[in-house]
């Protein structure tokens, strides 16, 4: 049975008088996508990992995110606890069911439920698929271990970003996604740059209009590149 996405695309093709896309044609399109030449890469995203982490931090904090860095996943609970305490925030968390977040979920400091965010959740914790130094953006994908609702429903979003997944430009981020998911893109890919904001109302900047009011990013020095 075709997926909803496939059914929608086939409906669009029929409306334009075009027949069903053959398996050979689908493969040809995938090959063309993977062989497409990269666009011009901004010079500011060049450099080694440390340079990219420094740029990412500068860009993310310039749009009102906070950024810290820890040495390994076991240091994550303390960093989150310090950040919450400094803001007089509770220690009840909605935590993504990613095994890398087990040190947080199992820590006695926290009251935790794991899985998609619930309407009453104030604080969500998840893991990024990557970081884009060019703009200080987080790359988030949907999946069983990464519920998309955690990105938008809680008022406060805490994101663990593996240092090994830091890339320079967007082109590198998309190339990595394609290599990670060779059978097809995740259902949802979200790019998050700072807390949610809008200036639509009387030209006044308002945080939290369409998602979290606060975004805290913890760069985790993991052992090896993915």
TrEMBL record:
Pfam family, one: LUD_dom
Domain LUD: 123-220
InterPro entries per UniProt: FTHF_cligase-like_sf, LUD_dom, NagB/RpiA_transferase-like
Alphabetized PANTHER family for the sequence: LACTATE UTILIZATION PROTEIN C (PTHR43682:SF1)
Name of the protein in its database record: L-lactate dehydrogenase complex protein LldG
Species of provenance: Novispirillum itersonii
């Amino acid at each position: 049975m075709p997926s909803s996405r496939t059914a929608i695309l086939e409906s669009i093709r029929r409306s334009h008088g075009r027949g069903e896309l053959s398996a050979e044609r689908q493969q040809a399109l995938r090959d063309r996508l993977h062989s497409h030449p990269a666009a011009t890469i901004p010079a500011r995203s060049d450099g080694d990992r440390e340079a990219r982490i420094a740029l990412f931090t500068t860009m993310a904090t310039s749009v009102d995110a906070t950024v810290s860095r820890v040495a390994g996943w076991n240091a994550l609970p303390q960093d989150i606890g310090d950040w919450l305490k400094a803001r007089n925030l509770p220690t009840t968390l909605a935590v993504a069911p990613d095994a890398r977040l087990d040190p947080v979920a199992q820590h006695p400091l926290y009251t935790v439920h794991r899985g998609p965010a619930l309407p009453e959740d104030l604080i969500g914790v998840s893991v990024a698929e990557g970081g884009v130094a060019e703009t200080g953006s987080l790359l988030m994908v949907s999946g069983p271990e990464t519920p998309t609702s955690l990105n938008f429903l809680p008022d406060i979003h805490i994101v663990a970003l593996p240092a090994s997944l830091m890339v320079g430009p967007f082109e590198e981020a998309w190339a990595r996604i394609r290599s990670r998911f060779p059978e097809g893109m995740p259902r949802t890919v979200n790019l998050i740059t700072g807390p949610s904001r809008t200036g639509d109302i009387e030209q006044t900047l308002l945080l939290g209009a369409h998602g979290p009011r606060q975004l805290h990013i913890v760069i985790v020095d993991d052992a090896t590149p993915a």
